[in-house]
Every structure is written in structure tokens, then in C-alpha cells.
Amino acid sequence: MLAPATEMRVKQAAVALSDERLIIVVGGSPDEGAYLCASARSATSAQLGFIAAHARGPIRVALPERRAVDLGLSTGRDTSARGPSRPSPASGDSNAGLTSVVASADSARTVQLLAYPLSTMHDFRSPGSVFPMVVPELGVLVNSAPSGAAVDLCRLASLEPVAVLCQLSIGGRSVTDAARVDSFAADHEIPVVAAHDVLQYRLQDVRIVERAGETAMPLPVGGFRAIGFHSRFVRGEHMALVLGDQVVPPGDDPAGVPVYVHKRCVGAVFGSTGCDCAHALAAALADIAAGGCGVVLYLDSHGGIEHAAATAYGIWDVAIVEQILCDLGLPREMSELNGGPVHVLRGPPGTSSPGRG
After folding, report:
1. What's the confidence (pLDDT) of residue 235?
2. For the domain 4-203, what is the CATH superfamily, name and number?
């Protein structure tokens, strides 16, 4: 379940954009910093002036691949390729920046035209002071950078999914300290939201895994079923090992079915002595067999997901686990990694190892 504070931050940011106000989007890692953002469709000269006074670097406008193609801007990659990718500057003349034909001195006009659905490549000329930045159509789901979050926030605000963003700067230096970002935001009454907040918000209503197949898997400790799941937006194949024909035996409480979560490790396959993964998996399977029911979720790594925030337990992995469990008839929240009957056998540093509570 999405934390109320997270939901509030996302909604406040979307409302601010809808009201033609600025927001600050914070990246998922310290080197990303914080970005002043505005809706491109309603950007004003006053807003861009404020951004120029408190940000570093050129004016960048994040826009989805489809919009970039409509404007004749190359995305710089194969847009049909599956999997995540970083936002990239649009190639071609736009590397020198764009300006509008009608109002060459007004960057706000150029920014607005990039978001205006009926504008075409003939409305711009290069060089200029506005730099388009192409992001994937799926936004923060496959790229949890501030640019993807800003585009998604425009969508949530029912605006054209095109956003202005520039990196926040104080005293000529990028701001990465959360306290300084919060202080600046409070002084100027600007809502702050993190890119991973937007990711969590979107993961509520998006199906990110789908069942791919099922087969019997007899093991020394008992007869299990292997149920495969396929990640829809990123490279990843996951497996649920379920004891017997039913996930929940007749008359049992689904909340009491033990669940063990393990992230892929070659050591578990070959019995490496360099980690305890093989032992942990064997112990979990034996524990399930002895108890008569249970599930082991074997999660693939996320092939290429950008940014640490997207791969930490608490966001992407948790969403995958919860959706797989829901598919199995075990609606369960992993609000605590080793709380109740959910046990993490292997994960990021700091998570606990096997055992039943």
C-alpha cells in the first residue's frame, strides 16, 4: 500500500503543475541532485527567469519519444527496443538548441510550442537556447530519473506530457543535500517530490508482471509446481515454487501461508560456499514441505533499470512480489521485509537472511 505521505507529495506536485506553478523533483541518487520543473505547455517567461536564476545548465525540455518523432527529432536509439534506457538529448540540429520561428527571443514561447500538439518541426529553428530531452513513453516505469518523473507528473495533472527542467543550484553549485533542497523549497513555497515517489505512485495501478507458464517440479523434499512470471517493462523472468496443487490448503488462512523471497544468485544453483544462498533455499523448501504449504519466489535481477532507487527493496521488487502473490491468491503487503510470514532470503545489503522469524 502506498504511504499516505508519498501519495500526498505526488498529488501536491501534480496540482502545482496544473495551477501553473513550479515544483522540485529530486533524483534517486545523490549525483542526480534536484531539479526545478514546470509544465512546458504553461511555462511563462517569469518562471523561466526564476529557473535561470536558481539553476545551472541550459533549459531542457523533457518530452516522450512519440512527441519527439512528431517534431522530427531523432531519439538517438531504437524506440522499439524493450527494456529501460536513460533519457537522451534529441539528436540532429537540436544539439545546438532550438528556438521558435515566431518569437526567437522568447524561450517561453519555444518551450510552449514543444508541448503544443499542433506544432511541427517548421515552428523551430536552430541554434537556440532550449534543448529537447527525449524520455521513454513509459516514463518513470522504465527510467526513474527526474525527467521521467516530471513527464509523468504532467500526465497526472492532465497536461501535455512535456516538462521543463533545470538542475537546482545555490551559489553556483548543484544541490544534493536534502535539507538545503527543503529549505529552498520552503522559502519559495515550491512543492518537493522525489522521482521514486512518482514511481511508487504509478506502480499502484500498473500490471508489471504477467503469468508465463507452469510445470511440475518434483524436488527431494516434495512435489512443487513452478509458475513462471514475465516482467512487462524490464528484462526479468521470475518463478514461484508452490508446494502441491493448491497455494492455500482448504480451510487454511491465506495470511498464514509462508512466503520466502530470494533474488537470483548463481551460488544458489551451483552450491557455492562463497554465500549461504543454496543453504537458505534448501532450508526454505524443507520448511515449506514440513508445514504442508508455502511459496518460494525466485526473483530475477532487473536488467538495466536505471538508478538505485528503482532497484532497492521497497519499490520495484516489492511491487513484483506483491503482484505475484496477488496472482497466486495471496494478497500480501511487504511493508516489512521479514514481517509476518514473508521472509527475505537474499537481497540488498542490510536485509536479513533466512529463517522463520
Report:
1. 74
2. DHBP synthase (3.90.870.10)
What's the DSSP call for residue 235? B
Pairing of strands 237-243, 222-231: antiparallel
Q: What is the pLDDT of residues 102-142, one digit of tens each?
A: 443 478 888 999 999 999 888 888 777 888 999 988 888 88
- CA quadruple 189, 133, 34, 206: dihedral positive or negative? positive
Report pLDDT digits (tens) over 257-301: 888 888 887 767 767 777 778 888 888 999 999 988 899 998 887
Same fold, 4-203 and 209-346: no
| DSSP track, 65-123 | HHHHHHTT-B-SS-TT--S----EE-BGGGGG-EEESS-TT-HHHHHHHHH-TT--GGG
Query: What's the whole-model pTM score?
Result: 0.76
Question: Which residues does residue 219 pair with via DSSP β-bridges, in sequence order?
Answer: 222
Mark out the alpha helices in the chain (DSSP H runs). Answer: 4-18, 45-54, 65-70, 107-115, 146-156, 178-188, 195-203, 266-270, 277-291, 308-311, 316-327
Radius of gyration of the chain, Cα coordinates, nearest whole angstrom: 24
Tell me which residue of 190, 242, 187, 186 sits closest to 211, measured CA to CA. 242
C-alpha distance from residue 247 to each of 174, 198, 207, 276, 327 (Å): 51, 33, 21, 27, 11
Quick check: 37 and 59 in contact, CB under 8 A?
no
Please return the burial class of 169, using the count of CB atoms within 10 Å of its CB with bins 0-12, 13-18 and 19+.
Answer: middle
pLDDT band at 180 (very low <50, low <70, confident <90, very high): very high
The predicted structure's pLDDT at residue 335: 52
**Domain boundaries 209-346, CATH class:** alpha beta
Q: How remote is the C-alpha of 300 from its chain's centroid?
A: 17
Task: Yes or no: say if 296 and 326 are a contact pair by the CB < 8 Å rule.
Answer: no
The domain ranges of the chain are 4-203, 209-346
Higher pLDDT, 14 or 276: 14
pLDDT band at residue 316 using 50, 70 and 90 as cut-offs: confident
Q: What does the block give as the cell for 297?
A: 519466489
329 alpha carbon, distance to own chain's centre: 25
